[in-house]
Specification:
This protein is mainly beta. Helix content is 0%, strand content 42%. The radius of gyration is 17 Å and the shape is elongated. The chain binds zinc ion (ZN).
Length: 109
């Protein structure tokens, strides 16, 4: 099954579900996995990872790392109107660009 993914790496998104005291803040997308419908969002769903002693000679033994959340749990934040929005599409030349459904500003640079 292929679902269209309207979120890209380095987008600013708002997590609309999920736990954690900072879950509702605006965050940066670190990576998108369209085939799995998942993404990594900076600082969201941190899990503690125990690092092996070989790799941690110069570090603490525990690191925090983001784990993947469902793409449907985030909304893109429009850089123009600064609100979470659904994504519309518009044609610019011969390619499609993403635009904000609230204010029609392009989401892509
Ligand atoms: Zn907007």
């Amino acid at each position: 099954m292929h679902t269209r993914v309207d979120i890209r790496r380095d987008d600013t998104v708002k997590v609309i579900t999920g736990r954690g005291k900072n879950a509702k803040d605006k965050k940066r997308v670190l990576a998108v996995f369209p085939n799995d419908g998942k993404l990594l969002v900076e600082g969201v769903k941190l899990v503690k990872k125990h690092l092996s002693s070989k790799r941690t000679r110069n570090k603490a033994g525990i690191a925090e790392q983001e784990s993947r959340i469902a793409i449907s749990n985030v909304m893109v934040v429009c850089p123009s109107c600064d609100k979470p929005t659904r994504v519309a599409h518009d044609k610019k030349g011969d390619r499609f660009i993403r635009v904000c459904k609230r204010c029609d500003a392009p989401l892509d640079k």
